[in-house]
Amino acid sequence: MDEQTQALVQAMHAVNRHMPGMAMGLLAGSLKPAKQHEFARLLSDLADLLHQHADARSGQPTTETEPDIPP
Question: What value does the mean pLDDT take over residues 4-30?
C-alpha cells in the first residue's frame, strides 16, 4: 500500500472511531459546538484526501475543494 492510500485509510479509521460518539452526542443534544467543528474539520480533511487519492489514480490534477456558495 502506498503512502497516500495509507494516509487515506488512516483518516477513514479516525472518522469511523469517532462517528458513534458524535452521532450519540448529537442525538442527546450534548455535543458542544467546538466538538462539532472539530469533527467537521476531520470530515473535511478526509474528503480532501479522498479527492487527492482519486485524482492521483485517474491521472488528473489534484481537485481543490471549495465551499458550495450559491451565486
Answer: 95
